[in-house]
Amino acid sequence: MPSKAQHSLQYASLPPFLRSMRENAGFTQRQLADLLGKPQSWIHNCETANRRVDVAEFAAWCDACGVRPQTGFTRFLKLVR
């Protein structure tokens, strides 16, 4: 039986990566949520794999944390390879 994509092994590294990016930028979940126009619970759900992050959301997360999306994606790929 297929499981949700956010619970796959390939996806498992993304939530902690997002959290570390937020923390390295010096933001609380609430501060990042305000920058992205989302509720704090949305950040929490992304960082705990309760919610899948799409590529556009990943790019916005990177921008808000002061990381170029291309750089963020490159860093993530190095982490999972």
Summarize the model shown.
The chain starts with 13 loop residues before the first helix and ends with a helix. The chain is built from 5 helices and no strands.
How would the blueprint of this fold be written?
Blueprint lengths: L13 H11 L4 H8 L3 H8 L7 H10 L4 H12 L1
Helix pairs in contact: 2-3
Number of strands: 0
Counting DSSP H or I runs of 4 or more residues, the number of helices is 5
Helical content (DSSP H or I, runs of 4+)? 55-70%
CATH topology-level fold name: 434 Repressor (Amino-terminal Domain)
CATH architecture: Orthogonal Bundle
The helix-and-strand class reads: mainly alpha
How many discrete structural domains? Answer: 1
Tell me, rounded to a whole number, the average pLDDT: 93
Estimate the global geometry from the Cα principal axes.
Answer: globular
Rg (CA only): 12 Å
- State the end-to-end CA separation: 27 Å
Which series of helices and strands comes N to C? HHHHH
Percent strand equals under 5%
Oligomer: single chain
CATH class: Mainly Alpha
At the fourth level of CATH, the homologous superfamily is lambda repressor-like DNA-binding domains
Largest sheet: none
Uncertain runs are none
List keywords for this structure.
81 residues, mainly alpha, 434 Repressor (Amino-terminal Domain), 60% helix, 0% strand, globular
